[in-house]
Each structure stands twice: as structure tokens, then as C-alpha cells.
Amino acid sequence: MIGYYVHHHGNGHLMRFLSVARELRSPVTGLGSMPRPASWSGPWVRLERDDSAGPAEVRALDVTARGTLHWVPRHDPGLADRTARLTSWIADARPALMVVDVSVEVSVLARLAGVPVVVVAMPGARWDRPHRLAYDLADALLAPWPEGAHTAGWPDAWRRKLWAVGGVSRFDARTVPSVGPGAPVTGRDTPRRVLLVWGAGGTDVTEADVAAARAATPGWQWVERSPRSPSPDLWSELRAADVVVTHAGQGAVADVAAARRPAVVVPQRRPFDEQGATAAAVERLRAGVGLRRWPRDAADWPGLLDHALAIGGDGWARWSSGHGAADAAARLDAMAGTAPSDGARTPGRAVHETVEARPAPARAAS
Predict the structure, then answer these.
(1) 3-state SS, residue 180
(2) CATH code for the part of the protein at 176-318
(3) pTM score
């Protein structure tokens, strides 16, 4: 049995869990503060939330335990119940290992219960005391990005246990060859297409910023997709775009990599500069155009789109193999002691063979 903790912020952690879980041979149980995902039929343990305090109260609650952890607010009504539910599940299920994507506190708690921990390594400046604790205690660091993208300055002890599987996308099975540099999808007499993609974590870019970019790029048709305006078929829209302009969330970047489309990657503000580090790595590896921020001058956009077309989509092969989820699952199965069997991998096999943990109490639904 593998336990897999999924952080509730944004959609990237959940999409990565679903992608990897489909490839696992081992039974797997998902754990997280969100309700059971609609697309997940396997066991799910819903954990209580631990953030009931308002902003004015947070400082008094010493949420970092004097800088040793990230979030352990004093006397939060959900924290003790959350901790008890997680440790109770561990005691009952006896998992072979716990994958944590991501939480320092869950990593520490699982290891204190004697469970080997695989921490999903994140981009950005992760040198703070809590992150060092989680990375030090991890049995392995699962990196959903290519070797060398984010390991500058890492200690040897972290490098030795790194599993850099490359981008993990929901579309890995559909990964296609690039159409090559300078080869737009649309014809000469048809407006070229920009697909603008935002994630559930929010954006710093305003409607006025996007309108100015549209106005500055005659001959380009912009289509914007976000949780407020979801795509009816994201894969088809990615493949039909001449250039994708995307935020720098790991899931979004992996999706663009799977589609092998020319791209401009625009980081949004996130803790530890996670997206800034990802955009910089995309630029450094020449997988696409990686920016520091949305351009202040809309007149920059024609040159940026042309530059992305010139780079093309071939460079994404350096970011994503097309089987990152399968590679991650194979590593996890090996650590869990699940031997590979003859024949093709059966996605999601054995996820129904365990019993659903008892549901969280009603107050956890908020």
C-alpha cells in the first residue's frame, strides 16, 4: 500500500497524483484536505483543514513553531484532528511508503510514524529550515522536472536520492513529435493562434494587460483559458495553437511540453519563487521562451511570439519524455516492493482493493 498526500492549493498537485496513480501497480490511497476528486474512484482519506484562524489571529498562533515548520497554528480546532486522522490511517493501513506532494508537516509526521517518505521536490528557493528538514529526512526526492533544472547548489545528499523523471502531464500518453521551428499550425492567410492558459492558483495579470497584448498583435487570435473559462478540450486547443502563453505552474508547463508546442512561459507570484524558477529553467534549457514577468510594454509581444515560433517545440523533449508519470510509478512500486508482472501495465490496478477510510466529520467540509 502506498499513501499519497495531495496539497489542496491549485490543481497541479492533484493532476500529478492522478497521473502517477493511474500507472501504479501498488494499491494507493489518496489523502488530502479537499473532497474526493470526481475523477478518482479509489480510496480517499479526507483530512481536516488546519487554517480556521483569520489573518489578524495568525501571528499570535505561532504558525511556524519559531521557524522550524511551515504551518502548525496553536489551538487550531482542525490541526489535532487532522494529525490524529493521518496517524490513525497509517496505523491501520501500514503503508509501505508515503508520497508527499507537498507538506513538510505531513512528511515529518509520516516519518515519525516509521513510514519511508518520498517528498515531491519543488522548484524555487527551498533553503529555509522546514524545507531542509523535509528534504533531509526523505528517502527519495521525486522531481517532476528534468535533471539539472533546479538542483544548483543542492547538497550531495539530496542529489544522491533525486528521481528526476521530467515533466508529469495528464497528457503524457499522447505526447507527440514537434512540428519543428518556424512551422505554424495555421495557414498564411489565417490568423495565427495564441492559447493563453491560467491556473487555479490565480494570476497577477489583469484583463487590461491581456487586452493590450491582443491589440499589439494584429494577425494573432488570442483564446484565454482559466478555471473561469475552462477549455472544452485542452489537448486539442494546445495542439491547435501556434504559440501557447502559459503561467509557470509545473502541471501547465508539463502539459505544454507533452503537446510540444512553441511557448512563452510567464511566471506568477508564488511562495519561494516557484514559478520564477520554472520559467528561468525553461529559458535556460531552450524549451521555450521563459520570462521574469508579464511584459510591461505590450509592444514586446509581437517579438516574443515570433521568438517562440523560431524556437519551436522540439526543445520540450529536454523537459518531458512523455512517460514521466510511468517512470515515477515504477520507482514508487520498486520502493514499495511491488514486483513488475509480465504484460502491459494496467493503469490504476488494485486501487479498489483497499477499504475507504471513514469520512471526515461534517465540519471538515468547509
Answers:
(1) coil
(2) 3.40.50.2000
(3) 0.88
